[in-house]
Amino acid sequence: MKVLVTGGAGYIGSVTTRELINQGYEVVVFDSLLYGHRQALPKQANFVKADLLDRSSIYSALSKEKIEAVVHFAALALVGESVKEPLKYFRNNLAGGINLLESMKELGIGKIIFSSSAAVYGDPGRIPIGENDSKDPTNPYGDTKLMFEKFLKWCDAAYGIRSISLRYFNAAGADNENSLGEDHDPETHLIPLILKAALGQREKINIFGTDYNTPDGTCVRDYVHVKDLAAAHVMALKRLNEGGASSFYNLGSSKGYSVREVIDMCRKISRKNIKAVESPRRAGDPPKLVASSEKIKKELGFTFKHSDLEDIIADAWQWHSKHPDGYK
């Protein structure tokens, strides 16, 4: 089967591209390289440098390459920026997504795996969060993910385009076998920021809020290894290929770790004295976000093989130590 991976030069997209190739798929990567890295792509993948906002480019890539299914990662994903520039996010994540779906409809491509997010839930009413719990995003980024899931629902009903949306929590770790890791500019994720402090590239790490109703007063989050995320995308695609119906799944380890626990584990793995500074809360940070991943385990038989926090940070530290400047 020939698969188009949008955003396949990004962090999760590049690891998934490798996993698809390892599983015998032919892969075409469609990426603007606005945030992705050409160096992260394997020689086995054809590459199209283009933007989803250019409808002719996505139609051309799907048609010329005779694509049979799509794995859709391409999106702007900075929460803070989305609050300041909502129209930018609506244009990129939704208008670009519509270009993709319209092209799929016209070419009769009926399978898509969508990279969604736990941001669709907003501040949850209960922990762990189940797929059918209320959804009230607290930022435009989360809203674009939820809206696109709704687009997919109606496109299935109207055009028979089947989809699986994967709502993942905090992606982390690295694929060191293929030298793939997390390299964002700007970097906003906790684990790489801590490890940059361990490498001496940052003076300190800030702990935003120490008075939450959690065991140690700091925010609790659910971390999932990027290799588990990639495996889940491939398993979801297999389900659609077998005739499975459209669905949606959480992807999280179902374990919560506080900011202090993550910092302590980074100190243990790196053997560095990482300076942490207590700072005021950030607006909009929920105290605790932990997934229930029972649905994907039960329906797809998925197992999380790498998402223990120590394994995640050990893999991330190995990659950042070897690539202190990322892919540059």
> How many DSSP-defined strands?
14
* Biggest beta sheet attributes: 7 strands, parallel
User: In one word, what is the shape?
Assistant: globular
Class of secondary structure makeup: alpha/beta
- Which CATH architecture of the largest domain? 3-Layer(aba) Sandwich
Number of helices: 10
- Give the rounded overall mean pLDDT: 96
Low-pLDDT segments, ≥5 res? none
**CATH homologous superfamily of the largest domain - what is it?**
NAD(P)-binding Rossmann-like Domain
The helix fraction, in percent, is 25-40%
What would the CATH topology of the largest domain be? Rossmann fold
H/E element string? Answer: EHEEHEHHEHEEHEEEHEEHEEHH
- The N- to C-terminal Cα distance equals 33 Å
Strand percentage lies at 15-25%
Taking all Cα atoms into account, the compactness measure Rg is 19 Å
Q: What spatial order of strands do you see in the largest sheet?
A: 3-2-1-4-5-6-11
Number of domains: 2
Reading off the top of the CATH hierarchy, the class of the largest domain is best stated as Alpha Beta
